[in-house]
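FAQ

Q: What does a record look like?
A: Structure on top, sequence underneath. For example:
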């Protein structure tokens, strides 16, 4: 009995020590509001609603953790689930952990992780895109950009003397069809005899300092069974079913911090090369924004965007202005207004992801939202 008690005490001590070397954090954001959209359909009607996709930022909850393995090496993981506040339903095509699901190792040399993860398109834009995944942000013109993730991916990132380098490789980028961006179709990959089908790879080089930063990235998706390319301008997506088909985005961007004002901007060139009926289509997307904190609790920011899809003769320009008041470190209220001008053949939607608000070709849209965001 005596030795049994000693063994139990020792086991408890070892258990406590092991626990002390590990950490798990539960976190989340809830963000919603009331939105007004003019010319929400071809008849010119307006709609008032709670948005289902995002407000200032998409709602999510998650867990992240790490274990110290010694010698500067750590094991890390992230599980992150997106959801819609208005109905409580899951985002990213109904996935349980559709935003991120990864595990890996981290050390002085960087991190190597495995699972469903962001591509380098997302990380390269994280500082230059002022409004980010806002409801009236860059996702209104290219829904992939704030949702640039891949299933089945291996990701490396490392930071050295201000430079960040990164690369991803996916064996099959999207198995649900709505997990990354609408209209892209399913492309699960991992097909015997065709190693290129549905593959995705990306690479990034980024430099950050106190006053400025620059970044460039390349992201290439291969075609496959049931895959499609969508330019989000109201023109029907077209199939890219051959593994030789490519949907690639290249970008260059930067930002500066001057006198309390942050200014960011960039260019994203998209090239879809297909042997199918869609042919080859190119687009160029430009953005420029600024942010200023009037007081530590009140921020004003805005951004302008312009996109041209050459072969589809579709163009649009959008301007978005936002004001955020921080009630505390975790809670903020905001107002956001934007207007989008469509060319004669385009019917982009001002509200990111569309959400069923598709104007007639050549008709612009006004969007406005007041909302609340709480972090936990």
């Amino acid at each position: 009995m005596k030795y049994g008690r000693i063994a139990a005490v020792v086991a408890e001590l070892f258990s406590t020590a092991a626990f002390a070397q590990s950490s798990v954090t539960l976190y989340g954001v809830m963000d919603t509001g009331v939105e007004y959209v003019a010319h929400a359909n071809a008849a010119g009607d307006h709609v008032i609603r709670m948005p289902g996709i995002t407000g200032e930022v998409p709602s999510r909850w998650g867990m992240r953790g790490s274990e110290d393995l010694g010698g500067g090496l750590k094991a890390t993981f992230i599980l992150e689930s997106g959801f819609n506040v208005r109905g409580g339903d899951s985002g990213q095509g109904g996935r349980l952990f559709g935003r991120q699901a990864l595990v890996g190792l981290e050390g002085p040399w960087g991190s190597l992780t495995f699972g469903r993860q962001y591509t380098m398109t997302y990380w390269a834009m994280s500082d230059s895109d002022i409004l980010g995944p806002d409801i009236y942000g860059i996702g209104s013109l290219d829904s992939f950009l704030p949702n640039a993730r891949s299933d089945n991916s291996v990701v490396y990132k490392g930071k050295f003397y201000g430079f960040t380098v990164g690369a991803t490789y996916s064996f099959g980028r999207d198995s649900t069809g709505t997990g990354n961006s609408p209209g892209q179709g399913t492309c699960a990959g991992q097909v015997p005899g065709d190693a290129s089908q549905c593959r995705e790879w990306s690479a990034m080089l980024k430099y950050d300092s106190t006053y400025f930063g620059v970044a460039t990235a390349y992201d290439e998706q291969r075609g496959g069974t049931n895959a499609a390319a969508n330019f989000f301008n109201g023109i029907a997506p077209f199939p890219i079913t051959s593994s030789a088909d490519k949907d690639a985005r290249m970008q260059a961007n930067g930002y500066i911090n001057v006198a309390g004002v942050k200014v960011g901007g960039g260019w994203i060139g998209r090239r879809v090369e297909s042997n199918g009926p869609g042919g080859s289509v190119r687009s160029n997307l430009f953005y420029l924004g600024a942010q200023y904190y009037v007081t530590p609790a009140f921020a004003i920011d805005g951004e302008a965007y312009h996109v041209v899809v050459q072969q589809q003769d579709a163009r649009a320009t959008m301007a978005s202005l936002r004001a955020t008041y921080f009630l505390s470190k975790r809670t903020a209220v905001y107002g956001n207004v934007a207007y989008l001008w469509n060319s004669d053949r385009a019917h982009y939607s001002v509200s990111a992801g569309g959400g069923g608000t598709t104007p007639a070709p050549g008709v612009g849209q006004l969007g406005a939202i007041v909302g609340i965001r709480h972090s936990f």
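Q: Is there anything notable about this one?
A: Residues 1-20 have pLDDT under 50 and may be disordered.
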